[in-house]
């Protein structure tokens, strides 16, 4: 190439926006995750999730949370706007909310046709705001109950390369179902409902009991096979694990939470499986809904904000504590032999 020529060019705002959006929103389940987290952060006691076509056609999340004023909702859909932190000091002193980056509504709006209807608690009037591919197409008054509904249609309509990556409706719905299940189990005091193509998949009562939530989400066969775990020496581990004969062929039903947040932790999962000794058939996995309480400074939950990974300061200690707590529960029920290895 001769002097003065270059192949390097600045990307347009639109291109930058759509590339960034693809990193936050991978598929319908990521939209559902962000919207459900917003509803929980908004102090909702009821959250309904309705999706069509696995979420590729339409996703609607309705809550009875604090809602937004007309001014609020207009700001909320802009880039990097949040009510949850003010500056880096807030972040360092620890955030109690699930979100704080201020990017979800903006990015979801950029890659779909989005409609937000919202009314603040105790407010006089509601607002409807419509976005198409990131542009605000209209804001006006709306008759709606207190709380918020975010409706997302035609996800990735303007990013065909992304849209092509979507799997079948049933696969996409399986991801959505997993996300809603994770949050429903972690929040027994919130009434969740999930609907797909107009049919109810599950609903929980929101009456604050993990056992009844497991029944609502997984059904009677699984619920009756669950054993309470309540213990842990170095680490507080409590919840439920299934009888060794009530298993599935994937590990997705081993749900683990650290300080109330759903996390993917191979350390915790392995510890649970270890507790069963040789009682599990090959390639079979139990159901588990296990909550660990650890001091905030002994765990890093922000290793990757979207992948839900965690890192423990002392993995070996966590592993032993979880395995022993689960093993004690199984032993108490005569479901493993006392000779299973302990460390
Ligand atoms: P973040 O959750 O990181 O703050 P979002 O883009 O998800 O960023 O949301 C931006 C802001 O919009 C939130 O900080 C909150 O003030 C408001 N908001 C979003 N969803 C809701 C909701 N369901 N109810 C009330 N306020 C909401
Ligand atoms: Mg958010």
From TrEMBL:
Domain of life assignment: Archaea
Coiled-coil blocks: none
Domain DNA mismatch repair protein S5 residue range list: 214-331
Protein family membership: Belongs to the DNA mismatch repair MutL/HexB family.
Function: This protein is involved in the repair of mismatches in DNA. It is required for dam-dependent methyl-directed DNA mismatch repair. May act as a 'molecular matchmaker', a protein that promotes the formation of a stable complex between two or more DNA-binding proteins in an ATP-dependent manner without itself being part of a final effector complex.
Protein name: DNA mismatch repair protein MutL
Protein source organism: Haladaptatus paucihalophilus DX253
Protein's gene: mutL
Residue window of the full protein shown: 1 to 343 of 734
């Amino acid at each position: 190439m001769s002097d003065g020529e270059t192949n390097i060019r600045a990307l347009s705002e639109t291109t930058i926006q759509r590339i960034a959006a693809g990193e936050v929103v991978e598929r319908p389940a990521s939209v559902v995750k962000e919207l459900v987290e917003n509803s929980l952060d908004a102090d909702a006691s009821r959250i309904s999730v309705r999706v069509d076509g696995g979420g590729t056609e339409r996703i609607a999340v309705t809550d009875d949370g604090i809602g937004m004023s007309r001014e609020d909702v207009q700001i909320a859909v802009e880039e990097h706007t949040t009510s949850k932190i003010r500056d880096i000091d807030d972040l360092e002193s620890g955030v109690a909310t699930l979100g704080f980056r201020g990017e979800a509504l903006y990015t979801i709006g950029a890659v779909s046709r989005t409609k937000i209807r919202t009314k603040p608690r105790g407010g006089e009037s509601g607002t409807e705001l419509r976005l198409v591919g990131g542009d605000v197409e209209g804001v006006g008054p709306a008759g709606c109950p207190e709380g918020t509904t975010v409706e997302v249609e035609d996800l990735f309509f303007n990013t065909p390369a992304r849209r092509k990556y979507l799997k079948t409706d049933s696969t996409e719905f399986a991801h959505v179902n997993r996300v809603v299940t994770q949050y429903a189990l972690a929040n027994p005091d919130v009434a969740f409902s999930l609907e797909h193509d107009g049919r109810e998949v599950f609903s929980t009562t929101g009456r604050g009991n993990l056992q009844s939530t497991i029944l609502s989400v997984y059904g009677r066969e699984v619920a009756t096979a669950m054993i309470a775990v309540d213990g842990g020496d170095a680490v507080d581990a409590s919840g439920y694990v299934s009888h060794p004969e009530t298993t599935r062929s994937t590990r997705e039903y081993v749900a683990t939470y650290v300080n109330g947040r759903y996390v993917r932790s191979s350390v915790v999962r392995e510890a649970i499986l270890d507790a069963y000794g040789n009682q599990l058939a090959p390639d079979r996995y139990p159901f588990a809904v296990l909550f660990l309480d650890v001091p905030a400074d002994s765990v890093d939950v922000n290793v990757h904000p979207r992948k839900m990974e965690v890192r423990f300061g002392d993995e070996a200690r966590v592993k032993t504590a979880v395995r022993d707590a689960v093993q004690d529960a199984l032993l108490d029920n005569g479901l493993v032999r006392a000779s299973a290895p302990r460390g």
